């Protein structure tokens, strides 16, 4: 039997907790206002209406808003009092007023927001939150009679089922306006709206005036400038136009999908869907695609670059006008000058005349003015003689800028842009030798201090990491993200952008909700059980090294197996070595790539708990990050597929030229098989061409034979890629050539370990002249590039075409 005081006690106990309460299920009425931590929830539990505090909780600003109920991250879709926050929700109220309007009263009972309707009957008026996310003010006795709805007044979010368009009679438009920053929902400077002239296209505007993006016209299925928005893939889009209005609406094909379209503080419009598996928002598409295409994203004297994060930075001689706003994603205030201009056209003898800082590879700012002058020196003088002039450029004419510089961008390829000359105070560009020497002295002192701090930090971190590693025995899911197959489909846009592929599957580009670019590899031909596959992936996920591609997560749903890696912006090594339209890697970069790849292999062979043999070393599997640091890819596939997959490799196009003889003879392999493949790849790094290729005269050549002969003769310079014009460190070149020839020895016992290769390339040990591998001549003697091998285990023979890549 229950104690008679139990229920009163529980009632008092739970009433004292700070738990949001729900009144009248999903509505606000005259007798039931909303205040404090109370909320109302839509009937199906999709959306919540209540007071919330965005971002940084220290500002004590509260707002009335609507957010998703079934999303673990607080994600607002509508805000009532965007520009008039309240500071005390406990004594504030959202209520039905005497005239029937829905109003927000602050702690002083002053009205700060209202639906602003003409007088309506208040005794039967209720505010209801619907499962669509729409807040409606309607007649309770006749729910079809709607007086006002939030869908007609969107803030920054367009929800499925709502309209985004215009009333042709009144001229009123539903448009989206970004938040000011991530902490402040006040209207920002970017907005999305339908063409006011009545066409079926959308514009993104800067400060409501400057259009910098258009969706293109609707062709009945999609917007011409957004091919991602097909009507039959994930979303159904519909366009309506009649005499009184024209608008778009959309809905997800899967009604259980949670999605939203947002005019983001970044100046991009983004379509996002919620991934239950990873508990994250996934970016489906964004426009403009390039962040730096957003007009004046970085504000006055701010420069945008796509190559690094953050995208915005201040140009030379300027600092952030509002660092706090910059950290919240609002760079609209731009940068301010560190030192005022002298604005002097006469040399004072003290070197205080304004100077110009050279900025090559720039997208030039807007609002330029042309000046008729004879040459570049006159163009500089024309700018210097005008106190309002802040920059100039001279290319087939003189162009100058007055006042703030807007829309600056550092082009990804410096040669693709123009040169801008930025006007700075003389003190910002010191040139005296004494000052330079003083700076050098200070720099050396700072460097020594930093190194000392690093040494102390290294010792402390090492001790801390050792203790932490002893206690760390977490499960695999705590280290890797377990993706659902459907989530990866959306992340990769249904695997539409293929990066490459091989015998084990194809790789596709994708984008995580936080805008991190990833590469998803669809594995083929794996027959492991679920438990074994997860165990092997867990092992691979714990292997981390600067020269190994990081595994972020995986998917395992029946036969659908995928691995998710970090995306490498400079692609694979083969694209830089063998494509004529690619940039030429200088010798220093090639040497560092060779050394980095060797370190990665040495780590797999000698530093892991059990030796991992890569089994497929080739330029295609060496990926390059933004700084051209090499990363070994697919290093875990040998472990996943198993050791007995020589048939796969020997039939795989692009790999046969890298196989060690023991592979071909069917003998057991060791880590020395990777050493052989590395040596073959090293020769290609040196020469910049495939080891087996056909010349323009139709003659087939096998470069390793030439390389061995030239190394023996001491003529290593002739092996260097002709595109380098002999520009290489001869000592390094000689060392690399000898290492390559040692690595491709017939007998695996004659080959060095990868640890020894690293030591040689680091100049820790010397390397002697290698013997000539006999198998190379066997390959070269066949004019057709074919050589027959015997399988010692079966007695069968087969042929390999070494000219196939």
Automatic annotation (TrEMBL):
<feature type="binding site">
    <location>
        <position position="522"/>
    </location>
    <ligand>
        <name>ATP</name>
    </ligand>
</feature>
<keyword id="KW-0418">Kinase</keyword>
<dbReference type="GO" id="GO:0030246">
    <property type="term" value="F:carbohydrate binding"/>
</dbReference>
<keyword id="KW-0732">Signal</keyword>
<dbReference type="InterPro" id="IPR008271">
    <property type="entry name" value="Ser/Thr_kinase_AS"/>
</dbReference>
<comment type="similarity">
    <text>Belongs to the protein kinase superfamily. Ser/Thr protein kinase family.</text>
</comment>
<dbReference type="GO" id="GO:0048544">
    <property type="term" value="P:recognition of pollen"/>
</dbReference>
<keyword id="KW-0723">Serine/threonine-protein kinase</keyword>
<feature type="signal peptide">
    <location>
        <begin position="1"/>
        <end position="24"/>
    </location>
</feature>
<keyword id="KW-0547">Nucleotide-binding</keyword>
<keyword id="KW-0808">Transferase</keyword>
<dbReference type="GO" id="GO:0005524">
    <property type="term" value="F:ATP binding"/>
</dbReference>
<dbReference type="InterPro" id="IPR011009">
    <property type="entry name" value="Kinase-like_dom_sf"/>
</dbReference>
<keyword id="KW-0245">EGF-like domain</keyword>
<dbReference type="GO" id="GO:0051707">
    <property type="term" value="P:response to other organism"/>
</dbReference>
<dbReference type="InterPro" id="IPR000858">
    <property type="entry name" value="S_locus_glycoprot_dom"/>
</dbReference>
<feature type="domain" description="Protein kinase">
    <location>
        <begin position="493"/>
        <end position="772"/>
    </location>
</feature>
<keyword id="KW-1015">Disulfide bond</keyword>
<dbReference type="InterPro" id="IPR036426">
    <property type="entry name" value="Bulb-type_lectin_dom_sf"/>
</dbReference>
<feature type="domain" description="Bulb-type lectin">
    <location>
        <begin position="25"/>
        <end position="150"/>
    </location>
</feature>
<dbReference type="InterPro" id="IPR001480">
    <property type="entry name" value="Bulb-type_lectin_dom"/>
</dbReference>
<feature type="domain" description="Apple">
    <location>
        <begin position="343"/>
        <end position="425"/>
    </location>
</feature>
<dbReference type="Pfam" id="PF00954">
    <property type="entry name" value="S_locus_glycop"/>
</dbReference>
<dbReference type="Pfam" id="PF00069">
    <property type="entry name" value="Pkinase"/>
</dbReference>
<protein>
    <recommendedName>
        <fullName>Receptor-like serine/threonine-protein kinase</fullName>
        <ecNumber>2.7.11.1</ecNumber>
    </recommendedName>
</protein>
<keyword id="KW-0597">Phosphoprotein</keyword>
<dbReference type="GO" id="GO:0005886">
    <property type="term" value="C:plasma membrane"/>
</dbReference>
<dbReference type="InterPro" id="IPR003609">
    <property type="entry name" value="Pan_app"/>
</dbReference>
<dbReference type="InterPro" id="IPR017441">
    <property type="entry name" value="Protein_kinase_ATP_BS"/>
</dbReference>
<feature type="transmembrane region" description="Helical">
    <location>
        <begin position="439"/>
        <end position="461"/>
    </location>
</feature>
<dbReference type="Pfam" id="PF08276">
    <property type="entry name" value="PAN_2"/>
</dbReference>
<keyword id="KW-0812">Transmembrane</keyword>
<keyword id="KW-0325">Glycoprotein</keyword>
<dbReference type="InterPro" id="IPR000719">
    <property type="entry name" value="Prot_kinase_dom"/>
</dbReference>
<dbReference type="Pfam" id="PF01453">
    <property type="entry name" value="B_lectin"/>
</dbReference>
<keyword id="KW-1003">Cell membrane</keyword>
<keyword id="KW-1133">Transmembrane helix</keyword>
<keyword id="KW-0675">Receptor</keyword>
<keyword id="KW-0430">Lectin</keyword>
<dbReference type="InterPro" id="IPR024171">
    <property type="entry name" value="SRK-like_kinase"/>
</dbReference>
<keyword id="KW-0067">ATP-binding</keyword>
<dbReference type="GO" id="GO:0004674">
    <property type="term" value="F:protein serine/threonine kinase activity"/>
</dbReference>
């Amino acid at each position: 039997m229950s104690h008679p005081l139990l229920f009163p006690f529980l009632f008092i106990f739970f009433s004292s907790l700070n738990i949001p309460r729900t009144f009248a299920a999903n509505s606000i009425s005259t007798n039931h206002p909303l205040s404090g931590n109370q909320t109302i929830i839509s009937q199906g539990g999709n959306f919540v209406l209540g007071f919330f505090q965005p971002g940084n909780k220290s500002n004590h600003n509260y707002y009335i808003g609507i957010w998703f109920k079934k999303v673990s991250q607080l994600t607002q879709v509508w805000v009532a009092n965007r520009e008039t926050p309240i500071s005390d929700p406990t004594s504030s109220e959202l209520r039905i007023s005497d005239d029937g309007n829905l109003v927000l009263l602050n702690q002083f009972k002053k009205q700060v927001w209202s639906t602003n309707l003409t007088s309506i009957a208040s005794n039967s008026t209720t505010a209801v939150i619907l499962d669509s996310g729409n807040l409606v003010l309607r007649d309770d006795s006749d729910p079809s009679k709607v007086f006002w709805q939030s869908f007609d007044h969107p803030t920054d979010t367009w929800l499925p089922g709502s309209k985004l368009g215009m009333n042709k009679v009144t001229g009123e438009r539903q448009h989206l306006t970004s938040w000011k920053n991530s902490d402040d929902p006040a209207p920002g400077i970017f907005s999305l709206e339908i063409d006011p002239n009545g066409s079926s296209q959308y514009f993104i505007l800067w400060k409501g005036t400057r259009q910098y993006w258009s969706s293109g016209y609707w062709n009945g299925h999609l917007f011409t400038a957004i091919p991602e928005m097909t009507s039959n893939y994930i979303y159904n889009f519909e366009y309506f136009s009649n005499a009184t209005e024209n608008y778009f609406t959309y809905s997800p094909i899967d009604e259980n999908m949670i999605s939203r379209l947002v005019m983001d503080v970044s100046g991009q419009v983004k379509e996002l869907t919620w991934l239950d598996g990873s508990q994250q928002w996934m970016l489906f598409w964004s426009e403009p695609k390039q962040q730096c295409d957003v007009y004046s994203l970085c504000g006055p004297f701010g420069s945008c670059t796509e190559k690094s994060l953050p995208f915005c930075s201040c140009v030379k001689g300027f600092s952030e006008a509002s660092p706090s706003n910059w950290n919240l994603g609002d760079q609209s205030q731009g940068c301010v000058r560190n030192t005022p201009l002298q604005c002097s056209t006469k040399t004072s003898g003290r070197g205080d005349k304004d100077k110009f800082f050279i900025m090559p590879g720039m997208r030039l700012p807007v609002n330029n003015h042309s000046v008729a002058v004879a040459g570049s020196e006159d163009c500089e003088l024309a700018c210097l003689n005008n106190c309002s002039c802040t920059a100039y450029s001279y290319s087939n004419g003189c162009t100058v800028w007055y006042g703030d510089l807007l829309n600056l961008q550092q082009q990804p390829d410096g040669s693709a842009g123009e040169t801008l000359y930025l006007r700075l105070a003389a003190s910002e560009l010191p040139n005296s030798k004494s000052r330079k020497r003083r700076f050098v002295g200070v720099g050396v002192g700072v460097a020594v201090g930093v190194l000392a701090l690093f040494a102390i930090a290294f010792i402390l971190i090492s001790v801390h990491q050792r203790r932490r590693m002893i206690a760390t025995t977490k499960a695999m899911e705590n280290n890797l993200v377990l993706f659902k197959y459907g989530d990866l489909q959306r992340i990769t846009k249904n695997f539409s952008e293929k990066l490459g592929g091989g015998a084990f599957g194809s790789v596709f580009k994708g984008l995580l909700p936080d805008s991190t670019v990833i590469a998803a590899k669809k594995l083929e031909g794996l027959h492991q059980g679920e438990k074994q596959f997860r165990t092997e992936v867990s092992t691979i996920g714990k292997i981390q090294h600067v020269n190994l591609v990081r595994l972020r997560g995986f998917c395992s749903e029946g036969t659908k197996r995928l691995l998710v890696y970090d995306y490498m912006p400079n692609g694979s090594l083969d694209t830089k070595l063998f494509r004529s339209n690619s940039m030429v890697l200088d010798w220093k970069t090639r040497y560092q790539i060779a050394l980095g790849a060797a370190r990665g292999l040495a780590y797999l062979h000698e530093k892991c708990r059990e030796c991992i043999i890569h089994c497929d070393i080739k330029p295609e599997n060496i990926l390059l990050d933004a700084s051209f640091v090499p990363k070994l890819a697919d290093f875990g596939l040998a472990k996943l597929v198993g050791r007995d997959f020589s048939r796969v490799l020997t039939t795989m196009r692009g790999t046969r030229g890298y196989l060690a003889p023991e592979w071909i003879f069917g003998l057991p392999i060791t880590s020395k098989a990777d050493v052989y493949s590395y040596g073959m790849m090293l020769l290609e790094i040196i020469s910049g061409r495939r080891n087996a290729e056909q010349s323009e005269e139709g003659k087939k050549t096998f470069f390793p034979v030439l390389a061995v002969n030239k190394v023996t003769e001491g003529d290593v310079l002739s092996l260097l890629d002709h595109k380098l014009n002999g520009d290489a460190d001869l000592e390094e070149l000689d060392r690399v050539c000898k290492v390559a020839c040692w690595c491709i020895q017939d007998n695996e016992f004659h080959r060095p370990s990868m640890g020894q290769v690293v030591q040689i390339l680091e100049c820790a040990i010397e390397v002697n002249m290698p013997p000539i591998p006999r198998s190379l001549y066997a390959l070269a003697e066949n004019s057709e590039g074919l050589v027959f091998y015997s399988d010692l285990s079966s007695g069968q023979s087969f042929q390999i075409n070494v000219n196939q890549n």
